[in-house]
Amino acid sequence: MKTLILGAGYAGLATATSLKPIPGLESLLIEQNAYHTFETRLHEAAAHNTPVTLPLLPLLRGTGVHLEQARVDYVDLDEREVGLKDGRVLMYDTLVVGLGSVTNFYRIPGLAENATELKQLSDADDIFNFVNRTFDNGYQGNRDIVVGGAGLTGVELVTELAQRAELLSKERGLPPFNIYLVEAGPKILPILDEALRAKAQQTLEEYGIKIMVGHRIMQATADSVTVQTQGGEQKVIKAGKIIWTGGIQARDIVRGQKIEKGPGGRIAVDEFLRAKGYSDVFIIGDMGLALNQEGKPVPTTAQHAGQQGRTTAKNIMNIVQNRPLVPYEPTTLGEFVSLGGLMAVGWMKLPWNQKLAITGGIAHVMKRASEWKWRSSVD
Ligand SMILES: Cc1cc2nc3c(=O)[nH]c(=O)nc-3n(C[C@H](O)[C@H](O)[C@H](O)COP(=O)(O)OP(=O)(O)OC[C@H]3O[C@@H](n4cnc5c(N)ncnc54)[C@H](O)[C@@H]3O)c2cc1C
To answer: Domain named FAD/NAD(P)-binding: which ranges (predicted)?
Structure first.
């Protein structure tokens, strides 16, 4: 059975590294980069240039999966073909699509043109270089940073940037820049409960981050954003760098007459993670719209992408060995938000669906532990 796995993110890489070389299975992983990116740590790369990639080839040893570094142009489920940017067209018996998500700019005028995203290594490099430039003695421009979106990514990013600014400020004797965290909704980190959110908010305030909840970005230019309060009052914030972390949508690269799409353009899948209407196609990670035990969409997180990848690998081997498929059973083991340095807040799942709230250094260790767990699962 010829199996193509598209994307070596959390979902695709978990599939590839969970496969075993079994008779009758021929698998090819197609990824545009020669490395896997730890997307969950891009904010650290943006502030401190921390390494956040892993070369793919060594990770595939012993799996029987081959790697092709290429860019996918389109996927046509009705024709059963994958078109590559270099013009080649590949056929498959079974297809796994894990090409992730792209930033959603919600058509806010000027935002896509003027804001940096935080989705890949080049975005992190761009932010890192800006921060360094602002501490050059000859730098003349505006040094302030506006981050739009106070979800997990935005909050993790501003705390790391504040730390970096503090460090460079001491080193080079210049004042730190201002960081504005702008959020249209009424609160930061809506995924957390009240007590953890309050702790996170206090940490941000201690860093001197200017939190502007209830402020919607209405437009952006090269050096400013215009924000509006719920009461209709408008303000202009001048900035040297605008970063948008306010939303994602599934990568729009798959076509097929029977495809059903849900919120964020995610492709509806059945209990085995197969695209509805296409029993040979698994859509996993941020692109897929899997439902949990209560019928609610599974969150777009690395944790769930990895689980989906591992279930899909089992099912590919089950198909080859003529065994029944196993359904996907999502579990959220916990959620942690890093707040710069050794600080984090979050919760972990306990037996009987209890949650244990954790803050401070221990939460930081838990967050790191989940990253190490991911790394050792693919290594
Ligand atoms: C800064 C940041 C912090 C985050 N923090 C957390 C966190 O703490 N916890 C958590 O659970 N989640 C977190 N997330 C979300 C998490 O990273 C995503 O949910 C996860 O990466 C989704 O996995 P995926 O495999 O679907 O996609 P991805 O990991 O994005 O992988 C997609 C892969 O497809 C490749 N690709 C894309 N297009 C093409 C193409 N045309 N051709 C070939 N290859 C292609 C990409 O290079 C990439 O390797 C964070 C995200 C960001 C941006």
So the answer is: 2-309
* 111-244 CATH fold: FAD/NAD(P)-binding domain (3.50.50)
The atom of ligand 1 lying closest to the CA of 305 is 23
Between 1.20.140.10, 3.50.50.60, 2.30.42.10, 3.50.50.100, what CATH number should domain 2-103+248-332 receive?
3.50.50.100
Rg of the chain on CA atoms, in Å: 22
pLDDT digits (tens, 9 = 90+) for 312-321: 999 999 999 9
Give the torsion sign (CA, 336, 338, 342, 344): negative
Identical fold, 2-103+248-332 and 111-244: yes
For 238-264, how does the pLDDT look when each residue is reduced to its tens digit (9 = 90+)? 999 999 999 999 999 999 999 999 999
CA-based max dimension of the chain: 68
Q: Which amino acid is at 77?
A: L
Q: List, chain by chain if needed, residues with CB within 6 Å of any ligand 1 atom.
A: 7-12, 30-33, 37, 39-40, 42-43, 71-72, 98-100, 118-119, 152-153, 156, 251, 285-286, 300-303, 305
Return all residues near 214 (Cβ < 8 A) that are at least 6 apart. Answer: 183, 184, 185, 186, 229, 230
Residue 15, H or E segment: helix 10-18
Contact 228, 234 (CB under 8 A): yes
